[in-house]
Specification:
- It is a single chain.
- The protein has 110 residues and is mainly β.
- Helices cover 13% and strands 53% of the residues.
- The mean pLDDT is 92.
């Protein structure tokens, strides 16, 4: 069995931030890993772009790779910056880019 090739998250962050800046909707996403119930996605957002509140998976975390974001849920919000890792609430949540930002979303789905 051949070992999987590691992903260069810095290169993916740069690539998708460039794509987000060129996109009319100000975002770009790429599914990095999908293994059974595990999914990891790189999501790039131009400053001011919002991902409206949506249902959360059973378990998830977000790691900010570039910039700053605001995580919202149940009337509360928390600012996260590059290098920070946060568990996502199990209730509806949203994300807003305070700067041009890139996050790594890790989710476990049923």
């Amino acid at each position: 069995m051949q070992d999987p090739v590691p992903f260069d998250l810095a290169a993916l962050a740069d690539e998708h931030l460039t794509k987000a800046r060129a996109a009319a909707h100000g975002r770009s996403a790429h599914l990095v890993m999908h293994d059974g119930v595990l999914r990891q996605s790189v999501i790039a957002l131009v400053a001011g772009t919002v991902l409206d509140e949506h249902n959360a998976p059973p378990a998830a975390s977000i790691q900010v790779l570039r910039g700053r974001v605001r995580l919202t849920e149940a009337g509360r919000s928390e600012e996260l910056k590059a290098g920070q890792l946060q568990m996502l609430p199990k209730e509806r949540n949203g994300l807003a880019a305070l700067d041009d930002a890139v996050v790594l979303l890790t989710a476990v789905n049923d």
